[in-house]
Amino acid sequence: MAKILLAEDEEVLRMLVVDTLEDEGHEVEEARDGEEAIQFITNNNYNLILLDYMMPIYTGLDVIEKVRKELGKADAKIMMLSAKNQKTDQQKVMEAGANYFMSKPFSPKELVDRIEEILG
């Protein structure tokens, strides 16, 4: 079982992902925006952080930058979930410090398979 943070501002998608991951035995905490995500990350350690690209207050890119530079969590595993899936967008995400990128929309099975691959 992994401890996962999901930062996603769309409630329906957040509920779907949480239900899917909890059914697989993972512990999932939810943040509704980038600011809340940073608070969770500051106070907890996660096996994986799932970030939406476009969130209120801080974007996923902002969160990655703060995690890597300000919070000193250079080894945190971060996956960006985004409908912005042009090569240039993916490149920005990876350059910001994400480890993985997954395009929206995605199937629950696709997400579970990818997370299992990441976590080993």
From TrEMBL:
GO biological process: phosphorelay signal transduction system
A Pfam family that the UniProt record links to this protein: Response_reg
UniProt keyword Hydrolase present: no
Domain Response regulatory: 3-119
Family matches, as InterPro entries: Bact_response_regulator, CheY-like_superfamily, Sig_transdc_resp-reg_receiver
Domain of life: Bacteria
4-aspartylphosphate: residues carrying this PTM: D52
Key words of the record: Phosphoprotein
Name of the protein in its database record: Response regulator receiver domain-containing protein
Organism the protein comes from: Litchfieldia salsa
